[in-house]
Design brief:
Blueprint lengths: L2 E5 L2 E4 L4 E8 L7 E7 L6 E7 L5 E3 L7 E6 L4 E6 L8 E8 L12 E4 L3 E6 L1
Parallel strand pairs: 2-11
Antiparallel strand pairs: 1-3, 3-8, 4-5, 4-9, 5-6, 7-8, 9-10, 9-11
Length: 125
């Protein structure tokens, strides 16, 4: 069973940057999609970014497109989320996930079966 461990969260001022990491162990990432979701207090979990480990398109939510970048390190089995130009509305717990979505469901949390514990990102104005 794969384990996903996020790190890199913290508190920053608006306009700042953070890089989140998601290290995978105990399972393969081949033939899977990897994604970042986030959940703010009192709100539903929302899609942030995703890609298929084997390659192909990158997917972003409209709210982060142009500011966030998802990437990976094959050797380290790690997924990254580079977050630039952070805004207070980016404040949330960020989760890494592994799943087998089809293209039409790649933004849906229900398509992912393995989740990390989350890392808090707080952006102050």
């Amino acid at each position: 069973q794969v384990q996903l461990v996020e790190s890199g969260g913290g508190a920053v001022q608006a306009g700042g940057s953070l890089r989140l990491s998601c290290a995978a162990s105990g399972g393969t990432l081949n033939n899977y999609a990897m994604a970042w979701f986030r959940q703010a207090p009192g709100k539903e979990r929302e899609f942030v970014a995703a890609f298929r480990w084997s390659g192909g398109s990158l997917y972003y939510s409209d709210s982060v497109k142009g500011r966030f970048t998802i990437s990976k390190d094959n050797a380290k089995k790690t997924v990254y989320l580079q977050m630039n130009s952070l805004k207070p509305e980016d404040t949330a717990v960020y989760f890494c996930a592994r799943g087998t979505p089809i293209i039409s469901t790649i933004r849906q949390s229900s398509a992912y079966s393995n989740w990390g514990q989350g890392t808090q990102v707080t952006v102050s104005s």
